[in-house]
């Protein structure tokens, strides 16, 4: 009796395995059919296809390096001394920074009031 039950269980297991394999194959086939799409060239609106594209090279305004004349360090030192030295350059830099500051930068300070003080 045990042998008959074992034989039937083996037959059922084989049929279940066949069903699982068939179901898996059918699933893969259906997924591949669903995801397969016909690839076509994208269609642009008529106005977009009529627009012209302009190209400007990054190197169109390139200026190649040219050797500059180097003067004597003594002459450069003398010229700086005639101008007024490093203090003149420092003043120029400070004036440039002050001009670059917006006028509204003083709005962060609160005006002092004398209300309530007598």
| Low-confidence runs of at least 5 consecutive residues | none
Strand content: under 5%
Helix content: 55-70%
Give a short account of the largest sheet.
Answer: none
Terminal Cα span? 118 Å
Q: Based on DSSP secondary structure assignment, what is the total number of beta strands?
A: 0
Radius of gyration: 43 Å
- Number of helices, counting only DSSP H or I runs of 4 residues or more: 4
Oligomer: single chain
Shape: elongated
Structural class given helices, strands, pairing?
mainly alpha
What is the mean pLDDT? 74
Order of helices and strands: HHHH
Describe the structure.
It contains four helices and no strands. The chain is an all-alpha fold. The protein has helices at 2-35, 46-50, 73-83, 86-100. The chain starts with a helix and ends in an 18-residue tail after the last helix. The protein is elongated. 55% of the residues lie in helices and 0% in strands. The protein has a domain at 74-100.
Which features would summarize this protein structure in a list?
118 residues; mainly alpha; 55% helix; elongated
